[in-house]
Amino acid sequence: DLYLLSDEVYEHLVFDGREHASVLRHEELYQRAFVVSSFGKTYHVTGWKTGYVVAPAPLTAELRKIHQYVSFTGVTPLQWALADYMLAHPEHVQELPAFYQAKRDLFCDLLAGSRFDFTRAAGTYFQLADYSAIRPELDDVTMAEWLTREHGVAAIPISVFYQQPPEGLRLVRFCFAKREETLREAAQRLCAI
Q1: Which is nearest to 14 in space by CA: 158, 177, 125?
Q2: Which end of the chain has the smaller Cβ count within 10 Å, N or C?
Q3: Which residues of the chain, if any, have pLDDT below 50?
């Protein structure tokens, strides 16, 4: 008697020859699932906050009853712009993994000389990094603030994604969805720490 809400917004950002494993591939899961996807992440327009949900008709009927009270508008010009781009560039989705993997690889290669410890992200456009060898006395929120103020590199603390973060969490995440010169500058500053 469970329903599944599957966040698949990074479905097209999977690296190293891996495939996205969607609940939509499994009939028994699909019948009880809401799959959330993002045009914003797939088409580099995250500020547009435009996405979609895939679910069986009876589930979408119930979802629409709630959605009408939590979403005030879908901006029509943005929807048309996305539709036009998708028609004009059907290759975009196939090219996306290589595009972001190249950015990930560049950033990680440059960061390899730093005191941060990390395993290359298998998908998404965020790289987690363990800072235990640098400032282990700082919690991740304080570390993210320190990196921004003292070194001019923005980082996102991981604890903010937890209701109860694990004890001793020493991870921050860096966004590598940036221009090459920005990634090079950020890595240079991080390696100097």
Answers
A1: 125
A2: N
A3: none
